[in-house]
Amino acid sequence: MYRKKFVPPLLKKPPTNQPTDTHDVEPPQKKIKLEPQTSSQKSANSDSSSQSNGVRKSLSIPRTHAGPGSKFNPPRLIRRPLAPVNDPPGGNEKSEEGSQNNVGGSRHYFNVLWRKFQARKHKTWDGDGVLAIVNGTATLQDVNGRDIGSGRVSKIPSEGDLISLGGKEVEIDSLLAKSDFLAGKPFLKSKGNLLDTSATVRPAEFYAKGSFKSPLLAGTTAPKTHPQKATARFDPTAEGALVMRRPTVTVESSLRNKTIVDVVVDPVLSRHLRPHQREGVAFLYEAIMGMRPYEGRGAILADEMGLGKTLQTIALLWTLLKQNPAHGQPPIVKKAMIVCPVTLINNWKREFKKWLGNERIHVFVADAKSNVRDFTHGPIYNVMIVGYERLRNIQDKLKQCQVDIIIADEGHRLKSAENKSAQAIRALATPRRIILSGTPLQNDLREFFVMVDFVNPGILENYSTFKKQFENPIVRSQQPEASKADKELGNARKAELTRLTNLFVLRRTAQILSKYLPPKTDVVVFCRPTKSQLELYKAILNTNLAKRQMGSMETALQLITLLKKVCNSTALLKSLGKDDDDSTFSSSVLEEVRVAGSALIANNSSGKLKVLEKLLITLKETTREKVVLVSNYTSTLDILEKMLNSKGFHHLRLDGKTPTNKRQDLVDKFNRVNSDIAFAFLLSSKSGGAGINLIGASRLILFDSDWNPANDLQAMARVHRDGQKSHVYIYRMMTTGCIDEKIYQRQITKQGLADSVMDQKAGGSNFTSAELRDLFTLDTETVCNTHDLLGCSCGEMGDLPEEGAEGEEEEEEEPIKMTGWTKASVVDMDQQEGAFRKATLKSRQRMKALLEFSHINPGKIVRQVTELHDGDSDSAEQQEGEEPTAIIEDEILRRVVDENPKSVSFIFSKNSM
Question: Residue ranges of the Helicase ATP-binding domain (predicted)?
């Protein structure tokens, strides 16, 4: 930018007693001679200086009269010699502190903030430090006392000054007393001594400037109010203000003799909160403040995915970090810790920046490169984000700092009392604890007890008491052979447990978002297995090794994993051991299959893969939409990736091998570009099942199911999130009559398969031997075994089924009889029909979630339309021009079924508005 040259202002010369007649004055000589002063001149100079108030003491202009014949002698300037001045001694603290600009021979100490040089716009500080300036030489030390920079300074800085030193930028925070520096207090582990009121340094001496600089952003400081008037930080009467409930003295004894003010959530956040989120923030605040009727200060926020648990938590923390209901008291929380899976650390950091920016709050990420001491002993950071694995390594360092509140994200990971992460958090002795989990009750009541006991220790007594009084009666009442008395006792205990936990557990479903998000359609597609899949599936089940596994609950998971691979693709048997540790068992089974003479076909044969390929081709050719493909196995993702490459479909991929620092870049790129650049996104449910928003896609296909239903639910929620603008379609693909269906049935009943099997070793009773054996039955005749268990008379033409009367034949109900390995051809049909009728009511109750879906049998629809055309010409004319599968609302899936009706055996479909 062009700038004018600086021109100094003209100095006004002092008046002189010159004669008015300038013609009689001789001009001064061009070169003035300097001569030493005489004694008379010195006295004259002394008189002159006293008359001019000390101006121009070092120069004198004597006046002399000329002799006869001369008019006037020109004045001569005589320089006064400089008088030597001694510097004050270095030990004089008063002289040092009184002269801010005297660098030489002085000592000054400051509390500072430092950072390496940064080119980005929003800069952050690397840590705290101490700056010592001795005789013009400045030395910068960190909080550990290590020298990290040095250099020369020309003047003593003041509070707020920014200087460069040793390749670092340093900002002066406050003065540091010399006695404190010499005592080493800034480098001690406990800085409590810095607040000692017996210190000789007055508070005013800690600051070089007394003026206050107003921040640029609103909400970072409290507004100026009358010091004697108790007012809230924000106006509680403003429109849309979110005001927290006021505590009472009986609830909080520390509030006695204190003035109570309203705690109001910062409008910067509250204006973005939806009604259910405002309710959630108020609920959590009351829980951790001890305002709810139970012993403890913990809570569980169990909202389903997509309801904004992260934003609710940030609003709560920001309120606690800045406000207190007791007027004049420090904030409720000074240090907060968020524990989460390592894949969610960047997501939390990004959310804090999104809602509060870098200016309002400083977030510390405890990774392998960071120094935890910056959080525990530094004043910069108020919130720390740490992974569960990292927490176990730094728990001893955290004991040096008082953490006031702990938030455990994905808290269902703390599902056992022996969990090392849970033990590390308990060791911090922090009473305020919050768990965030979209699936708090995944498998059994024991895991739920561990979570409740973590946030509110002792509220359910110990586990032995809980198991005897709650868990055993509730589980016993859900068994098929339960008596009427067992059911009555179990229902009563369940009601009491629900009443008690509802005091600190808040659960809302995704139905709340129906007014904010576009519609969603959930589709379960049952694909017929290919002939080679069935042959291989049967051959594996007929091996002696597999039959022995069926009777062993400890090793049944190995056989289940092998059968799941056959359902996905027979080609997966070529890469055994890549995703699991059962390669020895799988190799032994396959070797036995070869010895038996059965041909092992590993040519990428899969019914699901064929349907998926047609679905993707139709989607690419007819729309501009993008799709997310999810699997639990990286080997399955490899097969899907080969299929996309063969079709020329561009895609991105995120799995366990993707570096953590590159994952968000992949997500952002996929959401930003069009389908020509990235048509599909391959996602591993174990690596990206939570914290990732793939709203750039409007369709998601879950190719296989996980043992834990929570992992599937989290993966399917990646596209139906805030910011989504299109109608969302979620597809779950199953192999008809195989292990896929069995796992899905277990998920519907809210019980995880793998953990249910493990519970058997501990004496659990929620997975019987008959049910375990039924997992390995192969039904080649059914179009949908899941629909058979429902026993509904829906007609399979897309209409919603009518729910039957509950309680029918309940007292005469008998246990379900599994047919085991008996062939269907030798079963007494009357006996089977009777057992089926008795099992219908129980199955209907366990899987009543499917009653909300439309049941569609594509083969039955085609046959019915064909018979209609052949038998009734009038009806045929009415149906002319309509496709047989027109009842399938999804146009893409309808085209796939029309091209090959035999590829899809059954469809469950549900619309959520």
Answer: 290-458
- pLDDT given at position 377: 87
Stated as kind and residue range, the H or E segment containing 627 is strand 627-631
**pLDDT tens for each residue of 811-862:** 333 333 333 333 333 334 444 444 444 444 555 556 677 778 888 888 777 6
On the CB side of 312, CA atoms within 13 Å amount to: 26
Q: Please list the residue range(s) of the chain that carry CATH number 2.30.29.
A: 97-206
Total residues found in the chain within this entry:
913
CB-based contacts of 657, cutoff 8 Å, min separation 6: 634
Q: Taking 80 as the threshold, does the pLDDT of residue 102 lie above it?
A: no
Residues 6 or more apart in contact with residue 199 via CB below 8 angstroms: 177, 179, 180
Of the candidates 345, 294, 267, the residue with the CA atom closest to the CA atom of residue 692 = 345
pTM beyond 0.70: the answer is no
Reported as a pLDDT band with limits 50, 70 and 90, residue 867 is low
Burial string for 127-146 (b: 16+ CB within 10 Å, else e) reads bbbbbbbeebebbbbbbeee
Q: Are 699 and 724 in contact (CB under 8 A)?
A: no
Residues of the chain with CATH 3.40.50.10810: 253-506
Contact 752, 826 (CB under 8 A): no
DSSP 868: H
Average confidence score pLDDT of the chain: 75
Tens of pLDDT along 491-539?
A: 888 888 888 888 999 988 877 877 888 889 999 999 999 888 888 888 8
Amino acid at 527: C
Side chain identity, residue 308: G
Nearest to 57 by CA among 47, 65, 67, 66: 47
Specify burial of residue 278 (Cβ count, 10 A radius: 0-12, 13-18, 19+).
Answer: middle
User: What is the Cα–Cα distance from 473 to 486, expressed in whole angstroms?
Assistant: 7
Output DSSP code: residue 15: P
Q: What is the pLDDT of residues 18-75, one digit of tens each?
A: 444 444 445 555 544 444 444 444 444 444 444 444 444 443 444 444 444 444 455 5
Helix pair angle (607-622, 891-899), 10° resolution: 120
253-506 fold: Rossmann fold (3.40.50)
What's the CATH fold of domain 526-736?
Answer: Rossmann fold (3.40.50)
- Report the phi/psi class of residue 767: left, alpha or beta, with left for phi > 0 and alpha for psi in -120 to 50: beta
CA dist 120 → 112, 123, 124, 207, 359 (Å): 21, 6, 9, 30, 14
Q: Where in the chain is the domain with CATH 3.40.50.300?
A: 526-736
CATH 3.40.30 describes domain 97-206: no
Whole-number CA gyration radius for the chain: 40
CA distances from 65 to 37, 62, 467, 852 (A): 18, 10, 120, 122
CA 670 – CA 860 distance, rounded (Å) = 40
Long-range CB pairs of 570-575, under 8 A, 24+ apart, other chains included: 570/532, 570/533, 570/536, 570/601, 570/602, 570/603, 570/604, 570/605, 570/606, 571/602, 571/603, 571/604, 571/605, 571/606, 571/639, 572/633, 572/635, 572/636, 572/639, 573/600, 573/602, 574/602, 575/635, 575/638
Q: Considering only CA atoms, which of 536, 537, 531, 603 is closest in space to residue 571?
A: 603
